[in-house]
Amino acid sequence: MTDTLALVPSGIDTYRQPVVYMHEDCHVCRSEGFAAQTRVRIDLKDRWIIATLNVIARGAWLAVDEAALSSSAWAALGAQAGDRAAFSHPEPPASASVIRAKAYGNRLDQAGFAAIVSDTLDNRLSDLDLAAFVTACAGDRLDEAETVALTRAMRDAGQMLDWGDRAVLDKHCVGGLPGNRTTPIVVAIVAAAGHLVPKTSSRAITSPAGTADTMEVMAPVVLDGDALRRVVEAEGGCIVWGGGLALSPADDHFIRVERPLDFDSTGQLVASVLSKKAAAGATHVLIDMPVGPTAKVRSAGAAEALGARLSSVSEALGLNLALHISDGVAPVGRGIGPALEALDVLAVLRRMPEAPGDLRERALDLAGHLLDLAPNAVRGQGRDRAQSLLDSGAAEAKFMAICAAQGGFREPGSAAQRIEIRAPHAGQLSAVDNRRIARIAKLAGAPRQQRAGIRLLARIRDRVDKGQPLYELHAETPGELGYALAYAESQTDLFTLSEGVS
């Protein structure tokens, strides 16, 4: 079969981007006029994908009659050893003209956004196309009507969970605050109160840990729709990874391109959050917005603008939404990184004396606010109810039951390598740079290494002496510890210490 190539797995992880590798002397590559970065359609039996081509030089690891597929491309095609596939130029994406129109300032309707979402999920759009779309929507270039249309298009493109006529509670934090791992505690409290709270969470993209990463330290989080429903029907709640459920699946593709560009877009953030909440079947949603100079939302004005857009789009989608503005000056809890954050969560749920008070209080504030949001709730009594459920041990028992239903509870472990970072001078701690402390935790290996990260030893308003430990670096290998330490030691102003305090 001279018009096909043998498929082999490359073993290369390209995240969600399908990539194909061909030899530069490959007859198909030459005949079709394929060049590096060409978009290529691959047909195998009754399945097809569109992938980006990388060309391998002579003498390298790939034979001329083979095509190697990235891990995501291999899985998407359902390829097996010995398969042969056909390769061709794909039809131009229908949404390319829509993206061009948006780039020139035209407003898009839901049909236009739906075309972009559909082509995105079919991998018909290159990263350049997606970058053009993200750029055209950056800043305030999506108005309210466009934000509603994009949210609906993203919601409708994937799976949607249906819980009947029951009220479904959910919460979300816009992020930017390391260690702010309130979700497992809030879900445990709200489920213990008898409410339905099927929580789907993300893994970290640029942070040291996402909620799914932290939860995975303690219990399995990769559940399909049927398993999720069984857990929720049995225990009232769950904390699972949303990436395996195809809820608003285009969002992951957009985020992959948005993050390196580092664009702030109110419209795209709102569409990302609310499309997933709507797809998960939520009816009542609480949004936590930490505000601080190094948080994602940096000012009261930015919080007001984001809150207004969240509220208006939620109303258009039929969601009951409440906003919770919180302090984003410094990290929450003591742990930054999956296992370290899990230890904080368990300390709060177990009512341990050393449990971080700020994490406990934030979780109670959020759980109380969410309980007040529930139908037929007596407003203002939610926090007292939340505290009662936590202090009585009911929340801990519910959390353990949820873990058991998801596949079994595991105690978090500890990293093999540790070192303390000490204060360069005396003072009172008044602020911590959230972005740089998160970077140090990532350089130490988090979240890929679950036990890596940072344990904070000093808190806001603490008085510290020169040489007193400020935080402890955790890593799995000496190399990762040294890599993070080199950067950490250069960040002498990471902690703001007021002079004159001994």
TrEMBL record:
Alphabetical list of PROSITE patterns matching this protein: THYMID_PHOSPHORYLASE (PS00647)
Any one Gene Ontology molecular-function term assigned to this protein's record: 1,4-alpha-oligoglucan phosphorylase activity
EC supergroup of this enzyme: transferase
Keyword Transferase: yes
Swiss-Prot/TrEMBL keywords: Glycosyltransferase, Transferase
Superkingdom assignment: Bacteria
Endpoints of the signal sequence: none
Catalytic activity: thymidine + phosphate = 2-deoxy-alpha-D-ribose 1-phosphate + thymine
Record GO biological process: pyrimidine nucleobase metabolic process; pyrimidine nucleoside metabolic process
Family of the protein in this entry: Belongs to the thymidine/pyrimidine-nucleoside phosphorylase family. Type 2 subfamily.
HAMAP family: Thymid_phosp_2
UniProt name for this protein: Putative thymidine phosphorylase
Organism encoding this protein: Halovulum marinum
